[in-house]
Every structure is written in structure tokens, then in C-alpha cells.
Automatic annotation (TrEMBL):
Belongs to the ABC transporter superfamily. GO terms for molecular function: ATP binding. InterPro entries: AAA+_ATPase, ABC_transporter-like_ATP-bd, ABC_transporter-like_CS, ABC_transpr_TagH-like, Bact_Polysacc_Export_ATP-bd, P-loop_NTPase, Wzt_C. The keyword Translocase applies. This is Teichoic acid ABC transporter ATP-binding protein. Residues 5-246 form the ABC transporter domain. Keywords: ATP-binding, Nucleotide-binding, Translocase, Transport. Coiled coil: none annotated. It holds the Pfam family Wzt_C.
Amino acid sequence: MNLMIEVKDIVKTYKLYKKPIDRLKESVLPMKKKYHEDFNALNGISFEINKGDALGILGRNGSGKSTLLKLITGVLSPTSGEIKVNGRMSAILELGAGFNPEYTGRENIYLNGLMIGLQRAEIDIKMNGIIDFADIGSFIDQPVKVYSSGMFARLAFAVAINVDPDILIVDEALAVGDVRFQMKCIEKMKELKANGTTILFVSHATEQVKRFCNRAVWLKDGVIEAIGESSEIVDLYEDYMKYNSSEDDQSRDAEKVESEINEEIETDMIFPNNPNILSMITKVNINGKKFKTFDQVEVEVEYDVYEKVISGLLLGVALYTPDREYIFGPNTHLEKIELPNTRGRHKVKYTIPRLPLLGGTYNIDVGLFNNEGIVCLDYKQEIVGFTIVNKYFSEGLVYINHEWEILQ
Ligand SMILES: Nc1ncnc2c1ncn2[C@@H]1O[C@H](COP(=O)(O)OP(=O)(O)OP(=O)(O)O)[C@@H](O)[C@H]1O
């Protein structure tokens, strides 16, 4: 095992001032009164990352994720503790960080390359690859202050990803940029991961962490709540968030999933004008609105693929209660079903032969993803629903097979 990052008992204390003037008072009257409160954004963090690990960093807003990444990249220094980094690191922390707004895109590629530790000649060799990857046309010779956030994202990613880093650090940035570009980035990140690059990845999209990372750490109020195998940690975190998410977190989640409820869509395949739409769910049908426990439920999903082919396309069908309790959500990738992924219209039938749910109302979400579920191509929340009505025969959410035995 090759240790790439070692974080030992890190504490990061920020000084919090009630009013801006307090900071000034404290600096001009240094030996007098203390005008600030100490706030530990991180408190006693220790972990190690080995070569080839992809570590997802989870935590609600303000839990200390960005602070941790800034400490690892050296943008900030810890108040106490030690961080050892072994290898060349490239990072996308905040979009535009590390860019000089007055420089052109091309000049900023040099600036970033030099900061990462490349020689000018090495940057020259990589320059065309980076420009091709960013794909922002003639803007590459414009000052970056005129860029849109999408262009920024493209350039920042193109640089960070194409400089052969030993360690790549990505903070949320994937959320910016269009689907096509996200897919390109994920492909490249997978390639880096396969070649042994160590990756640290902060994302509010827990599914991305589950699918892309092998390990994850959950930060809560500046301490490690859990660390380990990514799917386990994501499950723990999601469980916690279900009952403890703030409005802030919820609004982020709502942004993530554009829900289009019970939408009726065209019957003929129409190619969308928007080049970011690569595939779309066009129809979802269910074989009834009212069932009894153990009835067969069939959901037919029709979708269009607008690309010649979408590698790694997957379809997921998820069952929810009206309170958005997640009951069950298989997908074609996990179950090794080869989903048609070439240009044209396709139709898939999902069958639950004996639905074990007890009385109540249930909803179904349908999602199309690519790259083993990392990039969402289309998502229909609560697109169909049904009710289960029975004569009274049991209680609870699901019927679990069981036996009774009278022992005495
Ligand atoms: N420069 C600073 N001065 C004072 N407090 C700060 C400073 N930077 C961050 N903090 C505080 O430290 C805590 C951790 O912040 P941090 O940005 O690391 O959280 P985060 O998990 O990345 O949050 P988000 O998901 O919203 O980006 C927060 O309470 C934040 O308000």
C-alpha cells in the first residue's frame, strides 16, 4: 500500500468576530481585549488515503468539507496537527480559484500548470489536449473574466484533469457544466483512477459518491462521524439526512432533481434542439392504479436515445412512500441487464411478480443515467403511482414471510 495523504489530528480554528470593526480593534489594540470567539471548523481529524483510492467526502453545509480540502491543498494551514501529501496534486476547489481574471484562458493554463509544478515545456506539450478538452472555442484567447461559469468549469476541469496528477481533488465542481461535459469529466476521472491517481471528491450528490468512490468519510460539525467503504457510509449519511436535513440542504436536493410530475409526452421521437439532452424518458405506464398485496405490477418505460450510442446507460425504477421513504430501487446496471443504448426509441418492462407491500399509496420514480449511474440524463419523480387495498390481514409496510410455532 502506498500512502498518498496522511492527515493527523487536524484542528482548524477560525476567529469569529461579531462585527467587522472588532477585527480592526483587535489588530490595533493587540494586547488588550479579545474581540473574537474561536470556532473549530475541524476538530481532531485523522485519516489516511492510499494510492488509487477514490475518497468521497460527505457532510451537510458547514460541516468542514471545503476547509479540509483547503488544508490538504495547502491553501490554508492547520491550527494544529499535521498533513503529509505525497505526489503532485491538482485541485478544483472553487470555480475560478487559481485563475487570474485578467489573463486569457491560455495564459491561465500556464499559470495553473506552473502552480502544479510543471515545467513550461511540459505545459506546451499538454496545451492542445487541455484546449481540446475544454472546448470553449475562441474564448481560450479571451480574458477569463468574460467567461460564463460553465466556461470556467470547463477550463478548470480541463487543466486539473490533464496534467497527470498523482492526486486529484474535486470540490462540487462537477455540478456546473453541461451533461455532455460532466460525462467527459467522469470518463477522464475513471481513466485517472484506473491508472492509479488518488481522488478526493466532495459532492452533495451521494449517489455519485457511492458509484464513483471506493471509500468515503462523513464529516459532522468538524469531526469524523464515520469513515469506510463508500456504499456503507453513504447509506449511513442518507439515513441521517432523511431526519436531520436543514431547509438549505433540502433546497439543494430539490435543485438536483427537477421533478416533472405525471408529464404527458410526445408519442413520436423528436430530436430536441438542446444538445445537452442526450436521452429522455418519453413514457411510463403502469398496469393499474389499484392493486392487492401479491398482485403482479408491471411498469413499462419508453425512452429515446439521441446519441449514436451512450455507453454505460442504465435505467432505475424506484419505489417510494408518499413521505418519500425509499422502499426499493433496483437498476439495470447493478443487475447486469444490457439496456439498449443506441440512437432510437426503446421500451423496457419492469415486473414485480408478487408485490409484498401492504395497504397504502406508493409512487414510482424512473431515472436514466450513464456511467454506472454517475451522471443523470433524465429523471421523472413520482411519474406513476398506485394504491394497495386489501381486506385486513396484516399490518405494516411490507408482508414478510414468516411462521408461527406454538412452543408451550
Ligand atoms: N474564513 C472563515 N472564517 C470563519 N469561519 C469560517 C471561515 N471559513 C469557513 N468557516 C466556517 O467553518 C465551517 C466549515 O465551513 P466549510 O466551508 O469548510 O464547510 P463545508 O462543509 O465545505 O460547507 P458547504 O457544503 O456549504 O461548502 C462553517 O461553519 C463556516 O461558516
